[in-house]
Structure formats: C-alpha cells, structure tokens
Specification:
By secondary structure, the protein is mostly helical. It has helices spanning 3-24, 29-38, 44-63, 72-90.
C-alpha cells in the first residue's frame, strides 16, 4: 500500500474517532455510535462500516500495517464522514 494513502487513512480514521468521542461525550465507541445515531448523524450501515474502519486503524497502530484494502475511495468516504460529523456536531 502506498505510504501516503496509509497515512491519509489513519489520519481520517483518527479524526472520525475524535469527532465521535466529542459527539458521545465518551471514549466508548458504542456510546458514541448510539449518540450519533440518535442525533440522526449515522445510520446502522454507517455504524457497521465505521466500526470496521476504526478497528482497522487500531490494528494499524499495533503493527503499523492496515489489515484491509485501502484505496482513494475509502479515504474519501472517511473524509465525508468526518465532514458530516463535524457539521452535525457544531450545529
């Protein structure tokens, strides 16, 4: 995997995690996902996908390799989630 693409994936995943922590006022992702769903920011499919992606980012921290196939589309999707969560939280 391209190192720049890996760094972008990790950075966007960490940003999404921070935004979720702020929305849920907790570091427990289940609590944060619940708060985001209740606020209409995420749906069930979004929660499932973000759970997988944030899990992949955590695994990357442990062994410095992303355990999933990352491409530009996936990074762009994470960026859209970050934008959506940031806009919804600031409203």
């Amino acid at each position: 995997m391209d190192e720049v693409l890996r760094k972008r994936f990790v950075g966007q995943a960490r940003l999404v995690r921070l935004l979720l922590w702020r929305i849920g006022n907790s570091t427990d992702l289940a609590t944060c996902f619940c708060a985001a769903k209740q606020g209409g920011m995420l749906g069930d499919d979004d929660v499932r996908l973000l759970g997988e992606l944030l899990g992949a980012e955590e695994a990357c921290r442990a062994n410095d390799a992303v355990p999933i196939e990352v491409d530009e589309v996936l990074v762009a999707k994470l960026q859209r989630y970050a934008d959506k969560l940031n806009r919804a939280d600031s409203a």
